[in-house]
Design brief:
Length: about 625
């Protein structure tokens, strides 16, 4: 039978990966069966074509009726094999063994039919005919071996009947030439079977390795998918928990700010100040988690340009010098005169997180910040003499909430998110971070940045001494100096939409305490009713403040924009929300609407009013 080199079936990937030794063996056997059936048509045509050619040559050499009968039977068998059902890719895996046995029985029958040729045509007195028959039989076996070595029973079943018949008939003739041909045929048979066994073993081993690799890849894929699901669930949980915590904390912050202001000269003022410190600490923790959500959401867009490192380093020194002195540590920030290409705010956040982390874990000695050039790159290094990080922990310190030597989750050592933010920012800015540390000797964090020159810069801009970005998604951090006087620049009517009564009450009290007129609504319907009143036309609203997540699945972005279109409002829209979901943050950023994240400090809220509300007449 004719053959081509066996190929694994492409359809095999449609079946589940093997889960045990038995299923693995079936998968391998399936590939063997697919290989032998891949050239089934050509094999039938070539094999029985050779038989017809041999019969024709024998009939021409010596016309006899029985030769025609042999040819007819032989070709009928070929036609039957051509028309019989065949294996295909849709055959269930469990039926593979039955099809393998069926094919082995079929080719054994073909080999047995061809085994009659040496008995009928070889004779001791006609050496040319003997040679022709020998060549045809050996050639047929050689070609069949290339296909049938995937199925050893088929290889033996097809080869042995023909070759043993040829060897027996040649040896039976008794003369030296025929005996030599018999020995040659025997040697060829043994060689063929040996090579066939080797090829079968190699093919089987390669298939086993392939399926084991596929199984490992599938298992790894499932583990990765499970890890991704767990990460997504964690993100959703944190987003939900953060939102639910921010809502009451926002009200507490505003009530507390009002209480602190009222008790400023009272003996209870100290308690009010301590309350606000605790509220601010909790707000800072939530803001840190918000930073991670914003980075994951892709709503932080770097503004790359020339950045003077000395200006950045001065800000770092001003921010951490007092803290280092309080801990009796040395903080050395070295001027370099170097410039880099980066985002000033985000680079400052990276460095401040690294310095903050170094100070937390340094008991004696100190922290140094320095920069130096390496070719067309600048290396910024934050080096400390702290407790150090063991090699097995050095990758994990960049994970969220992982902290070295803080099993009790001491809050003074932070949340364990600072280095996670550093890693996210390094990927966003393309500033690789390298860590080298020895336990008990300290750590060195190195940032690699592209160098820049002062000539590339227009006006030197100092980075803000604050966090990741502005409380506005689209805009800069309000100037604290302006924030103090914001109430005098933002007189007018404010429409507040929030579905939580406590938040409405807190914000109403806050706005009115600063001389602002505010009307509140729990949702779109109440807001539309307020906007439809005559006084809304006589004294139009100058600002529309909406919570993002409202009742019944509404969101402040859609509600606010619908109200603006419906009533032709010229008042700008400001979102105030505790939402931290990456998907929703992306949508807010795409809209271009400014947003403040709860809990909003009094200064930030007043600064936002000064930015957005036009100057109008004093509050009524």
């Amino acid at each position: 039978m004719n053959a081509t080199a066996p190929k694994p079936s492409r359809e095999s990937t449609d079946f589940p990966l093997p889960t045990g030794p038995d299923e693995l063996a079936l998968r391998v056997l399936r590939e063997h069966v697919a290989s032998v059936y891949a050239a089934y048509n050509a094999s039938v045509f070539v094999h029985f074509g050779l038989g017809a050619a041999l019969g024709t040559a024998m009939y021409v050499h010596e016309p006899r009726t029985w030769i025609l009968v042999w040819m007819a039977v032989h070709l009928s068998l070929g036609l039957f094999l051509f028309l019989m059902p065949r294996w295909h890719s849709g055959v269930p895996l469990a039926d593979t063994t039955r099809w393998a046995r069926r094919h082995s029985r079929t080719v054994t029958a073909v080999g047995a039919a061809m085994a009659s040729a040496p008995m009928l045509f070889i004779s001791s007195d006609d050496l040319p005919v003997t040679s022709v028959v020998t060549v045809v039989v050996i050639g047929s076996c050689a070609r069949a071996m290339q296909l049938l070595w995937p199925l050893k029973p088929a290889l033996y079943g097809y080869t042995l009947p023909m070759m043993l018949s040829l060897i027996t008939v040649l040896a039976w003739q008794g003369d030296a030439m025929h005996f030599f041909l018999a020995l040659f045929s025997l040697g060829y048979l043994l060689f063929t079977l040996r090579v066939g066994n080797q090829q079968h073993r190699l093919l089987t081993d390669s298939l086993v390795l392939r399926f084991e690799n596929e199984a490992l890849a599938g298992q790894l894929g499932r583990q990765i998918a499970a890890a991704e699901r767990a990460s997504a669930e964690k993100t959703r949980f944190l987003a939900t928990a953060s939102h639910d915590l921010r809502q009451p904390l926002h009200a507490i912050a505003l009530f507390g700010a009002a209480l602190e202001n009222e008790l400023r000269e009272h003996h209870g003022g100290r308690n009010a100040r301590q309350l606000m410190r605790a509220v601010n600490a909790l707000g800072n923790s939530l803001d840190t988690m918000l930073d991670v959500s914003r980075l994951d959401a892709g709503v932080v867009t770097p503004a790359i340009g020339p950045v003077p490192l000395d200006a950045l380093f001065r800000s770092l020194n001003h921010m951490f010098a007092a803290r280092a002195e309080q801990r009796q540590l040395q903080l050395r920030v070295h001027a370099s005169g170097l410039w880099v290409r980066s985002d000033a705010q985000l680079l400052y956040r990276m460095l401040s997180n690294l310095v903050d982390n170094a100070l937390k874990y340094t008991v004696r000695g100190g922290v140094s910040v320095r920069a130096r050039t390496r070719g067309d790159m600048v290396w910024i290094e934050v080096v400390d003499t702290g407790i150090g990080i063991a090699p097995e922990q050095q990758e994990r310190v960049f994970e969220e909430y992982y902290q070295v030597h803080n099993p009790g989750r001491d809050r003074t050592q932070g949340l364990g998110i600072g280095l996670s933010i550093v890693q996210r920012l390094s990927q966003l800015l393309w500033h690789p971070v390298q860590l080298k540390s020895r336990p008990g000797r300290g750590s060195r964090f190195r940032l690699r940045l592209p160098a820049a020159t002062q000539a590339e810069a227009g006006v030197e801009t100092m980075p803000p001494a604050t966090g990741l970005a502005s409380p506005f998604v689209t805009g800069a951090m309000p100037d604290p100096a302006r924030t103090i006087h914001a109430p005098h620049a933002a007189r007018g009517r404010i429409l507040l939409i929030d579905d939580e009564a406590e938040v409405r009450e807190a914000m109403t009290g806050f706005f009115r305490a600063h001389g602002l007129t505010v009307d509140t609504a729990a949702g779109e319907a109440e807001a539309a009713e307020l906007l439809a009143r005559p006084e809304a036309r006589e004294h139009p609203f100058t600002l529309l403040v909406c919570d993002y997540r409202l009742a019944n699945g509404d969101n402040g972005l859609d509600v606010g924009q619908r109200l603006q279109r419906r009533f032709d409002l010229q008042a700008p829209l400001l979102l105030v929300t505790g939402e931290t979901s990456p998907e929703r943050l992306q949508r807010v950023r795409a809209s271009g609407v400014p947003v403040l994240f709860k809990p909003v400090s009094a200064a930030a809220l007043l600064g936002a009013l000064a930015e957005l509300a036009p100057e109008t007449s004093p509050a009524h």
